[in-house]
Design brief:
- The structure holds 2 protein chains of 2 kinds.
- Chain A is of the alpha/beta class.
- Chain A contains 17 helices and 21 strands.
- In chain A, helix 1 packs antiparallel against helix 17, helix 3 crosses helix 17 and helix 4 packs across helix 14.
- The radius of gyration of chain A is 24 Å and the shape is elongated.
- Chain A starts with a helix and ends with a helix.
- Chain B contains 17 helices and 23 strands.
- In chain B, strands 1, 2, 3, 4, 5, 19, 20, 21 and 22 form a 9-stranded mixed sheet that branches.
- The chains are: A alpha/beta, B alpha/beta.
């Protein structure tokens, strides 16, 4: 274990690093020139969100300056109790945690993930991103037996048949999915062009099937409960390819004929019990098929993929972690939003939300409805860092406004397949109603800081308090 | 203010100072300087009598950032839940591929200050750089993975001019902020996407009709024309397959006398002799390297224990899927550019092939005469985690220690290997070459890997020890950018980091040619490809 003096020294060093980083960031924000042109989406965003720039920080509903809010948030974070108790008073079902600070929310960027992990490393906290349930069902399956996947670009260029399983939620979550996967007709190296074939298996409406038909895709839809898909795949795998090729069933024939078959699904659509086993059996089938031809999977993970990636490289784990005194503990069953909002009392919650639109719920439950866990206490966030206050903010809580990542502030994000990452410059600076300098100045003045900047400032506040505390002890 | 390291014995093969008698080193800001005329400017003085100074270590080939590294972390959540701040040395990593924080700490405490990720995918370059930016203390750089992307394959098949290929590679290196170019199983990853299961050097990729020989020649030619310091960094065809020495030598021939670096060469010099049909061909490869100064290798030494193999060579990783321990694996086809395979793996003393791989790596080290042509790597984490470097150094410096482990290997390994006859023991100076001076020189980084005036003030102070493993596992002091960051087992300060990248010249007209075909392969904007290192 590191010595106390080393902790103090490291804290001072971290503090200095953060101060320098913030200084650098503020310089960069002045110097940065927008690299991405104005988009209609961000034009619309601007008109919708201008009013939000006027949101002020609050403490217990009272308007305060940003500095006051951050100072108060740091004080509350520092003072939050280190011992939690069970909601039901029992230690059997849920072990007592030495740390009850809990960080959650729709964290969307690498920068905010870094800041959140930095804050938790400094003072101890559990981190679980909201809407991570479906992501973790996939993670658990991968950690047990692995996976075989391809990126969107690979599928778009190479795949001759796409097997979409589950339901239409993949289209809801990634509206450009079909566009991204099928916009080009396959142009293989030999110059052959073929329209893509799409087999849709699961709960598909006629509207959903219509969307799949974009770009002249041939579509064959089979209505099936998602739970039954592994059984069907198992049956498929038992039939020889020769027999499948002669089958009168179009879907079976297309699947058998494919040279490069892609199986696409949305993790959040697998809202039934033990769906991780479903994913595992699907991957097992894909890897087995690869022994004779190319088959790949494409799990759509949604916006949580950026947090998952950055958290993995920073801590070694994809989330659901507890950072305490230099240790990282990972428990995908224990360190969950559900547990921390429903089973632990006296949890001090920091919610960070930089999403578009701002999220005020905790995702969807297994039946697709809004997750009920927030019903424990709809106002649970002791500190909320978000573009605008929402119903999750406790009446006595601290609200710190922040910008929307990727629109109002530059951000590093991953594409839904987790392969391509880009640094997205702020688009809002070029989406003003006019190009007048005066308006740009006004806008710049009112533009709130990014979530990661807010957390970094919060961390500096906490470090200052730690230093004062250490000095008092010495 | 100037820091003086007084009375220290240099172990610096590139030194212009005396290495026979102790000298004084002067550090000002982040540089080493000559003895200042005005001694009153000297502030802190460290008396290092009896200590040895080396430049900061340089790892030319270690997987520390990017998609496949993160996939390996995801796949292997099992680990020792001990604290990261524990300071006893020679301990294993908490996982075969730990988080960036632990990676940075563990490298630094061995005296390494610069590490290079050898497989940066274009689509993933931003990710790789962000990850390396989060690896504390280490200066980093990346080698761009080319030679399997559909765009280049198509252009080679169409016979576009060498000028166009050169400009394309120049643009890609600049846009993705890389230092060198690596090719993995030239054309083979691409061929696997067309369901080809093997691809020899003169075999045609079924999609494009292009051979690996053609790709290798094209890339090596372009790299020479661009003036990149580091030669084409090649992961040869037929990784890990018995008899692959033929394709390795064919790879050397393919570049027609141009410079070439063969990476993790240990995995590419196997014969087919012996009762198991698997034998060492280290002698043949060493003979070729010894006769051709334009060649260099890094070894990719295997050491025993649990690790994870991660490679862009999806074709061969898939073929080896049943060797995974524990039995799980990740395979990915990536954005018409490359692929990756991640397999957990356990190297065992008692296993014939693993034992022979261990011996072959050491044979290469000992058979190659010029230490500037061979670099110390384990291809972290593929052969072993980087934390085993001190152990590997002892194997090279201590014949008896080497033989004590050799005697525990499979009897057939003991019968087949040339190792007992190799009495060579590396000197301290040779260790400095294979861990610092050689890699830095090969990468064209003139300011690191040595302790001359003007060099970056990355200095490692060792206490001499009869056990080289103990010595190299426990540097006494480490100065990074002129600042004392590590002393007596304690991290006492952070340090700024550098990103090494090549800035090459090319005809910018290539952008319009690329943009005509970019959209065919990549559903992300070409404009988003570029990023600044400052943004990391």
């Amino acid at each position: 274990m590191i010595h106390c003096t080393s902790v103090c020294r490291l804290r001072r060093q971290l503090l200095e690093n953060y101060r320098q980083r913030l200084l650098l960031q503020s310089k960069q924000s002045v110097l940065a020139s927008p690299k991405v042109g104005a988009s209609t989406r961000s034009d619309a965003m601007h008109s919708n969100l201008t009013s939000k720039y006027l949101e002020s920080a609050t403490i217990a509903g009272r308007s305060v300056t940003i500095n006051e809010a951050i100072a108060e948030a740091a004080r509350r974070w520092f003072c939050s109790t280190l011992i939690s108790t069970h909601r039901n008073g029992s230690t059997d079902s849920f072990p007592t945690q030495p740390c009850n600070r809990f960080i959650t929310g729709a964290i969307q960027t690498v920068e905010t993930t870094r800041a959140v992990v930095g804050l938790a490393s400094l003072s101890g906290a559990v981190i679980d991103r909201t809407e991570s349930e479906s992501t973790f069902r996939h993670v658990l399956a991968v950690q047990r037996s692995g996976m075989s996947t391809a990126s969107m670009g690979e599928i778009r260029f190479r795949s001759d048949c796409i097997f979409v399983v589950g339901d239409e939620s993949c289209l809801e979550q990634t509206p450009l999915l079909i566009e991204n996967l099928t916009r080009l007709q396959q142009a293989d190296a030999l110059g052959r062009f073929r329209a893509k074939r799409i087999v849709a298996l699961g709960r598909w409406s006629s509207e959903g099937v219509k969307q799949l038909r974009a770009n002249n895709n041939e579509v064959f839809a089979i209505w099936l409960e998602p739970q039954s898909i592994p059984r069907m795949l198992h049956q498929l795998s038992q039939i020889s390819n020769e027999r499948l090729l002669q089958s009168k069933n179009t879907a079976a024939r297309w699947i058998a004929e494919a040279d490069y078959l892609s199986v696409v699904w949305c993790n959040s659509s697998l809202g039934f019990e033990q769906s991780d086993l479903w994913i595992e059996s699907l991957y097992a089938w894909i890897i087995k098929e690869n022994a004779r031809r190319r088959v790949v999977g494409l799990p759509i993970s949604g916006s949580g993929i950026t947090f998952q990636q950055a958290c993995t490289w920073l801590t070694g784990f994809p989330g659901r972690i507890r950072l305490l005194e230099g240790n990282v503990a990972y428990d995908p069953e224990l360190f969950t939003t559900d547990n921390y909002l429903n089973k632990v009392d006296n949890v001090f919650v920091l919610k960070v939300d930089e999403s578009l639109p701002p999220s005020d719920d905790f995702g969807k439950g297994d039946d697709g409805s809004k997750r009920q866990s927030v019903s424990r206490n709809s106002a649970f966030a002791d500190i909320l860092i978000a573009p605008s206050p929402d119903s999750s903010l406790s009446p006595s809580g601290v609200f710190i406004p922040c910008s929307i990542a990727g629109f109002e502030s530059a951000a590093s994000m991953f594409r839904a397949d987790g392969v391509v990452s880009v640094h997205v410059a702020s688009t809002s600076r070029v989406t003003l109603p006019s190009d007048s300098t005066a308006e740009i100045d006004t806008f710049e003045t009112l533009r709130p800081m990014s979530a990661h900047e807010a957390i970094s400032r919060l961390q500096i506040g906490v470090m200052n308090l730690c230093e004062s505390h250490d000095e008092a002890l010495e | 203010m100037i820091t003086k390291l007084a009375n220290v014995t240099l172990c610096d093969p590139a030194s212009q100072l005396s290495v026979a008698t102790p000298v004084d080193l002067y550090l000002q800001s982040d540089r080493l300087i000559n003895k200042p005329e005005d001694q009153s400017r000297v502030g802190t003085v460290y008396d290092l009598t009896g200590k040895i100074a080396m430049a900061g270590g340089v790892d030319i080939h270690t997987h520390i950032g990017g998609g496949k590294v993160n996939l390996a972390r995801l796949l292997l959540p099992e680990r020792i839940q001990k604290d990261l701040f524990h300071t006893s040395l020679c301990r294993p990593l908490s996982a075969p591929v730990p988080g960036t924080w632990e990676t940075g700490r563990r490298y630094l405490e061995m005296g390494y200050t610069a590490c290079f990720e050898p497989a940066v995918l274009p689509c993933n370059a931003h990710h790789a750089h962000m990850e390396m930016a989060d690896t504390p203390w280490l200066d980093t750089g990346g080698f761009l993975l080319l030679g399997n992307e559909d765009l280049l394959m198509r252009w080679i098949a169409e016979g576009v001019s060498s000028q166009q290929i050169r400009d394309y590679i120049g643009w890609m290196i600049n846009a993705h902020r890389c230092l060198a170019v690596k090719v993995v199983n030239a054309g083979g990853i691409n061929a696997f996407k067309f369901n080809q299961r093997s691809l020899d050097v003169d075999e045609k990729n079924s999609g494009y009709g292009v051979t690996p020989r053609h790709i290798l020649r094209t890339l090596a030619e372009a790299i020479d024309a661009l003036g990149l310091a580091h030669p084409l960094h090649v992961h040869c065809s037929n990784l890990g397959i018995a008899g692959n020495i033929a394709s390795t030598l064919a790879t050397v021939d393919a570049v027609e006398g141009r410079r070439l670096h063969l990476t993790h060469a240990q995995f590419h010099c196997y014969g087919t002799e012996g009762v198991f049909g698997f034998s060492s061909e280290s002698k043949r490869l060493a003979e070729v390297v010894n006769s051709r100064p334009e060649l260099s290798i890094d070894v990719g030494q295997v050491l025993f224990g649990q690790t994870v193999t991660l490679s862009g060579d999806l074709m061969h990783q898939f073929a080896n899927r049943n060797l995974a321990r524990p039995r799980k694996q990740i395979f990915q086809d990536l954005e018409c550019q490359a692929g990756c395979g991640v397999l957990p793996f356990r190297y065992r003393h008692s296993q014939y092939v693993h034992g022979l791989q261990w011996a072959i790596g050491l044979e290469l080290f000992l058979l190659i005469n010029n230490p500037y042509q061979v670099f110390l790597t384990t291809d972290h984490p593929n052969g072993a985690p980087f934390t085993s470097y001190p152990h590997l150094i002892r194997l090279l410096m201590d014949y008896d220690f080497r033989m004590s482990i050799f005697s525990s290997l499979h009897p057939e390994v003991q019968r087949m290997s040339l190792l007992p006859a190799m009495k060579r023991e590396y000197t301290l100076e040779e260790i400095a070459i294979v861990t610092r001076t050689g890699p830095a020189k090969s990468l064209g980084l003139k300011n690191i890997g040595h302790l001359n005036a003007g060099a970056k003030a990355d200095v490692v102070i060792y206490s001499p020890d009869s056990n080289p493993e103990a010595m190299f596992a426990k540097p006494e002091m480490i100065f990074k950018n002129g600042t004392l960051v590590f002393h007596n087992g304690e991290f006492i300060s952070s340090s700024s980091k550098n990103v090494y990248r090549a800035d090459v010249e090319f005809d910018s007209g290539i952008e319009s040619k690329m943009s005509q075909v970019w959209d065919t392969y990549y559903p992300y904007s070409m404009a988003l490809t570029k990023f600044s290192c400052d943004s990391l």
